[in-house]
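Q: What changes when magnesium ion is included in the input?
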Amino acid sequence: MLKVKGLKVAVEGNEILKGIDLEVNKGEVHAIMGPNGSGKSTLANVLAGREEYEVLAGEVLYNGQNLLDMKPEERAREGLFLAFQYPVEIPGVSMSNFLKTALNELRDHHGQEKLDAMEFFALMREKLKLVNMDEKLLSRSINEGFSGGEKKRNEIFQMALLEPKLAILDETDSGLDIDALKIVSKGVNQLRSQDNAIIIVTHYQRLLNYIVPDFVHVLVDGKIVKSGDKGLALKLDEQGYDWVKDNVSEPVAA
Amino acid sequence: MEITDIKQWYISNFELFEESLNGSRETPFHEVRRSAISKFSELGFPTPRHEEWKYTNVAPMLEHKFKLPTEVAKVPKEVLRDFTFDTLKENLVVFVNGLFSEELSNIALNSDDIIVSSLRNAMVNHADLVYKHLGRYVSFEDESFTALNTAFTNDGTFIFVTDNKVIEDPIHLIYISDGDTELVSHLRNLFIVGKNSQVKIIESFHSLSDTTYFNNLVTEVFVDECAIIDHIKLQEESINAFHISNSQVQQERQSVYRTVNIDLGGGLVRNNLNVLLNDEHCESHLFGFFLGQGTQHIDNHTFIDHAKPHCFSNELYKGILDDKARGVFNGKIIVRPDAQKTNALQSNKTLLLTDDASINAKPQLEIFADDVKCTHGATIGQLDDEAMFYLRARGIGEEMAGAMLRHAFISDVLENIKIEEVRERMDAHIIERFTKALKS
Ligand SMILES: Nc1ncnc2c1ncn2[C@@H]1O[C@H](COP(=O)(O)OP(=O)(O)OP(=O)(O)O)[C@@H](O)[C@H]1O
Ligand SMILES: [Mg+2]
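A: The predicted holo structure follows.
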């Protein structure tokens, strides 16, 4: 589904990603862990199409298409979804208008009829229930005045609504209490299927108790320095990143 | 063409205009007209050397010899459908090229207590009332366009509401321009609202073609004690039109004046909106939105005169400028020595969508009282990249996302249009303009 090869990315002249290789297949869940500033969000944003990032080298194939040539909206319509680490507040754009527009653009892209108002609200209600969100949020502006936890749940709500093929969750677990964490996990697990894939960026093992990953990667200073199974996440949780970092520096010193 | 020539052109037109006036020439107001034309002759047209006209150069207007309309042009009644509102019971006062159209108008209100009429008819039928107020509020001492308008005052809208009347249905004044002659109209409006009365007035300016014409509008508004006026002005003139508007509002004790001014059209637009808070406990709310595209030039000058204590004024003007459009905002607030406990808020925000678009924005606060609360702020910015990316990352196309964000930017102006259908219509028009701009 996703093949990242030798991806190097710079932001404002600084190289942040220094050669990323990553392959994600249908049905898989990958976790990406790593210290602050190592480039996890950069990777997530580049995959979603953020234009501020300059691709220096490498390629990304998404279902056989050259992902880097696609506009962000095209990627989204083709089933790529990014749950933002810091969802932006957009005063003046109501949630309901936003979601209706997004859904209809998606449906239009796939040759489906637009939803009428009744169908739209029925769908909203169903998905809101999934993430325990109040219907009142729909009449508010996007993320405006939402609490940290509400913003994260809102991301999962949008994911549930848009039913992506590849979901990238950037620290969706950070700042969530245990109940909210369960709600988010429920939303993600609902999406999980043979046809979909999920990339979870996280600092903590605790989310991975609920969403068990098939692979765990450690990103340090713009490179994936170690990959393994769910056991790796446990070890990182107990021992921190230093031991993997040390592993990396060895060949450099030699 | 020489500037003196064009000035002479207007002055010689005044002589022709005088001859065309019949009975109205015998009224005392005609003396006012004459002194106004000599004032105009003295002042001439403003140049950028004039402090109030620093950023707006009217030179392009002086290249045209605009003619006065002689008869009411025929336009089919169907065209009104695009300008009127389905869910409203409106009283329609319709003008074509600056002249009142009896045929297109539909005025249900009219009694001894409420007069809605063309000014031309009111000068005959309600002469005492009209002349008691006409020219009393606005001054042409240092304003050539007001002087010019006063000299040529002959038609416009007269609204009079006696004390203690609440009028539910809005009064809608529609100004249509059409034809291919380059015409000028000096529309003159006079709105007098009595004590404790309430009225909603919508003014809308439209054009049926891309004609070049000049609307030189003057509006006098008197809001008596405890009266409330809701005043909406929608300006959708032809892209080649010149639109100059001078409004003087005078508020008496405890009165409320709320206005929303939307400028979408016009090649060169200048609005002077002056509000005098002439007694205690008045409230004024001034909202504005202007959208400039192509080479449009839109200038809003507002002046709130806090003459008396305990008044509240709130002003929010927002602009979006695209292509090579230019905007001007000058928000003057005077708090006179007597006006203690004044509360005045002013905010002006502009989005510049291109490097070639520009805005000159200036708050101008002159405060002579010490116990007052005045705040002002002006910001100039671009569309928020992060917000744009968020919308696009959910599959919303760039064009649509841009339109949504621009629309969001002006939502706190538009939400002050309290008449739902009017607000929705404006919403739709503006969104259409946003997407059209991106396609071209
Ligand atoms: N727009 C930007 N401008 C300048 N520097 C940036 C920008 N975005 C990211 N960076 C820098 O790139 C590096 C990687 O940032 P990134 O957000 O990808 O890290 P992260 O691994 O997601 O960290 P965290 O765990 O704290 O979320 C950091 O040093 C950051 O300061
Ligand atoms: Mg991050």
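Observations recorded in class: Chain B has two domains: 3-279, 384-440.
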